[in-house]
Design brief:
two-stranded antiparallel ribbon; alpha/beta; 15 helices; about 20% strand; 15 strands; about 35% helix; 2 domains; globular
Length: about 400
């Protein structure tokens, strides 16, 4: 009777065995023999490569290009976090190396051309470190968008600093509006590939801030500088209008969008025409984009007109999840509250927090304080969190 060896076992049994091993033991097993390597390199091993973090630097990106060659396990990555660290840089941040742009684009092209599966890639952009994280967000965003434009790699989602940050002073992380128009530069082929990358996108999250720049004494601005604005200027109206148009264009590339997460990070500039155009960016987005398939929506620190509010939410009949925080409306919320209970039959999660109308601050005096119970009474009355069928119960408010 022939002896039973590990390599003679069926693939299914070997997968059961390696499921009990940690990653390093699994790697060691694969090195013992080619037959064992092949049999132990199926689903159980691939799971280690589904989610990865990749630093935007030459050495890690060179490795990324290597592991996305045909037959390599980098092709199985489905959730990719692209990051840089503010702790690695001095105040004078060096420009992005052309080699970095080339390597990320090549890695994306490898994934696009060599993928052994049909799962699309989800991309998350991060900056790690302490202090003002927004100092490096523009380059992470531009490197990523350049790579998508050059490769045409289809993506399932893009989170550009929207999730995982407090978005408050001292811990802010957003990219300036002025980075978006640059995305649409390039040849017709570049823009065709960019559209192809976003066409299947189901989820997009963006953390936005004003496009601000250093003083230019040769160009007049809309209002004189305040004494505390010695080094930065807000956008002109023409700049701001181009920025909001480009944002709407970017979102319009996602006809299959199911989840939208938009965050605004506030700057204390005088409200010039340019500043107001960017503050009310959501008005332009709703004018230009259709979101009938949206199921989840999160808006934070967003300003809009009442007409925009109603135009946007009237089309969201399939909405399941709604999270509105720090929303300022020129007008009233009454129409929205009626829609929530009458026109959104699938709504199962509702969070309303710090809403401000033309008549004053919105309070929810009859809501149980549940998970807001530890907050002061004044603040907890400004927050409402509901789940399940309770999310569609009529919203009762008081205005102060």
């Amino acid at each position: 009777m022939a002896s039973v060896t590990l390599e003679s076992l069926p693939v299914e049994l070997i997968e059961e065995i390696v499921a009990w091993l940690d990653f390093h033991d699994h790697c060691a097993l694969r090195l013992t023999k080619r037959t064992i390597s092949v049999k132990s390199s199926n689903a159980a091993f691939r799971k280690y490569f589904l989610s990865k973090k990749l630093e935007i630097a030459e050495a890690p990106l060179e490795q990324f290009v290597g592991v996305t060659q045909p037959g390599r396990f980098g092709l199985w990555v489905q959730d990719l976090t692209l990051y840089t660290s503010i702790a690695l840089h001095t105040e004078e941040v060096p420009p992005v190396s052309p080699r970095v742009l080339e390597l990320l684009a090549q890695g994306f092209a490898n994934m696009h051309n060599n993928s052994p599966h049909d799962e699309l890639l989800s991309i998350t952009l991060k900056v790690f470190g302490n202090g003002y994280l927004g100092a490096l967000t523009d380059r992470v965003f531009q490197v990523t968008m350049s790579a998508l434009k050059n490769s045409g790699l289809p993506i399932r989602s893009l989170d550009a600093f929207a999730g995982g940050y407090s978005h408050t002073y001292g811990g802010r992380c957003s990219f300036p509006f002025g980075e978006i128009p640059a995305v649409f530069g390039g040849s017709t082929a570049d823009l065709t590939r960019l559209a192809a990358a976003f066409q299947p996108c189901k989820k997009i999250g963006l953390s936005l801030a004003h496009h601000i720049h250093k003083i230019d004494f040769l160009r007049p601005r809309e209002s004189p500088l305040r004494p505390e604005d010695d080094f930065e200027l807000p956008p002109s109206y023409e700049e701001a209008r181009e920025n909001t148009r480009s944002l709407a264009h970017l979102l319009s590339l996602c006809p299959n969008l199911e989840e939208l997460h938009l965050v605004w990070e506030y700057d204390e500039f005088d409200e010039t025409a340019g500043v107001r155009e960017e503050l009310y960016f959501f008005n332009r987005v709703v004018e230009s984009c259709q979101f009938q398939g949206l199921k989840k929506c999160t808006l934070c620190d967003t300003r809009m007109s009442e007409a925009t509010l109603m135009t946007f939410f009237r089309q969201l009949t399939r909405l399941v999840h709604l999270d509105l925080r720090l929303i300022h409306v020129d007008g009233h919320f009454d129409g929205l509250f009626r829609l929530l209970s009458t026109a959104m039959p699938e709504l199962s999660y509702l969070r309303l927090q710090y809403l401000y109308s033309s008549s004053g601050t919105i309070y929810f005096p009859r809501e149980p304080r549940d998970n807001a119970a530890r907050s002061p009474l004044r603040r907890s009355a400004q927050r409402l969190i509901r789940r399940g069928v309770n999310a569609r119960r009529p919203v009762i408010t008081r205005i102060r």
